[in-house]
Write a structure and sequence with these properties.
By secondary structure, this protein is an alpha/beta fold. The protein is about 40% helix and about 10% strand. Helix 1 runs antiparallel to helix 8, helix 2 runs parallel beside helix 8 and helix 8 crosses helix 11. The longest helix has about 40 residues.
């Protein structure tokens, strides 16, 4: 897939699967009409759109009408968080009377939504995480109040791979709804607080059955599942109050205006279908590669540590198999990435979305230093031979 290059940045972006490309070509050569049109070609495009929606819904065990196609994870997160606040604001509730909560290690698209709303007067709390990178559930429970409109906690962190206790948070949200009752708003009911999770990094390796998760909103992104760029989806549970943030022709049941990109949507649906079929086998294979990589690094230098620290028994029950974040004392992380790049190894120091920031707020939150850290992430075309080569290159650089 990458010739002699070793690509270890799958958490940033996954290459498109050839099966996805073939599916997109099917719908690029035909079905090119606008799915909102009434003539034959338009009806065919609409049928394809319906098929893609059914496949996406099936992946998370949702109803097709609960799937809204977007341009990707960032737009889905904006629609979920800003849309929930705007739905109440349109009913006459002032921004200053609303409260939202996120974890301190959320993706930048969630953090910036929270900052944007905070600028309008919405009260915002960022829930801390422990040294293990897991959100402090006790603090979260204590912070919920009658004015809490939205809680957003990602399923899997994109920098350190920690798996958050989404089901437990959903349970806490349900308990809060029962205690809060009617809430401070005249028309408020048991729908608040609304619970959203960004599952962009979780789709390949976690079971995202929304009935078991208990979430109201769930984000998916094509760029993280070997699908096309510029396409994603937001699951919106029936009767969840959300207002559109993109206005126009009222496509996607009024939730996301703009003519639907049928080839991209069908490629996205195919990527989800493949992910569901291969999840179990790929999880085992990728976890084995990650373990082999870490063991090889520890043989090079005993002081190389994982972020967050892996327990002595090797247990990683709360970490996704595809992300390994490590600290190598006394290196300059950014320069080290450049040295690896020159040797044909592609990896990163932090999320690509933090390009203009000197320090990773995710690593800082768990007491790690992004200055000496690397993020290595594995995927569908990562082979054991590539892992061995990368270990050898890292060893050679450190020996100097």
């Amino acid at each position: 897939m990458f010739d002699r290059r070793v690509y270890l940045d799958y958490a940033s972006l996954t290459p498109m699967d050839p099966r996805v490309i073939r599916e997109m070509k099917r719908f690029s050569g035909r079905g090119y009409a606008n799915p909102s049109s009434w003539y034959k070609e338009g009806v065919a495009a609409k049928n394809a759109l319906d098929e893609g929606r059914k496949k996406a819904a099936s992946f998370i065990h949702a109803h097709p009408d609960e799937i809204v196609f977007t341009s990707g994870g960032t737009e889905s997160n904006n629609l979920a968080i800003i849309g929930a606040v705007e739905a109440l604001h349109e009913k006459g509730v002032g921004y200053s009377k609303m409260h939202i909560m996120t974890s301190i290690i959320e993706h930048s698209s969630v953090r910036e939504c929270a900052n944007y709303l905070n600028g309008k007067g919405v009260m915002v709390d960022a829930i801390p995480v422990g040294k293990d990178g897991i959100v402090d559930l006790d603090v979260l429970k204590k912070k919920i109040r009658p004015e809490t409109v939205m809680i957003s906690v990602m399923a899997v962190n994109n920098e350190i791979g920690t798996i958050q206790p989404i089901r437990e948070i959903a349970k806490a949200v349900r308990q809060a709804r029962a205690c809060i009752g009617a809430g401070p708003f005249d028309f408020q009911d048991s729908k608040y607080p609304i619970f959203h999770t960004d599952a962009s990094q979780a789709a390949l390796y976690e079971d995202l059955n929304i009935e078991r998760l208990g979430v109201d909103l769930l984000t998916l992104d094509g760029t993280k599942i070997y699908g096309p760029r510029g396409v994603g989806a937001l699951f919106i549970k029936r009767d969840t109050p959300i207002s559109s943030v993109i206005h126009g022709g009222g496509q996607e049941s009024g939730m996301r205006s703009g003519t639907e990109n049928i080839p991209a949507i069908m490629g996205f649906a195919k990527a989800l279908e493949i992910a569901g079929t291969e999840r179990y086998s790929e999880t085992i294979r990728i976890r084995g590669l990650k373990d082999h990589f870490y063991e090889g690094l520890k043989e090079i230098r005993k002081d190389i540590e994982a972020n967050p620290r892996i327990s002595p028994d090797g247990s990683e029950t709360r970490q996704s198999p595809h992300i390994l974040n490590i600290s190598i004392p006394d290196i300059d992380g950014e320069f080290f990435v450049m040295q690896l790049d020159a040797k044909g190894i592609a990896c990163s120091t932090k999320s690509s979305c933090l390009r203009d920031e000197d320090e990773s707020y995710v690593l800082k939150s768990i007491g790690a230093d992004s200055k000496d850290s690397l993020r290595l992430s594995f995927g569908r075309w990562t082979k054991k031979g590539q892992i061995k080569r990368a270990i050898k290159v890292i060893g050679a650089i450190l020996s100097k």
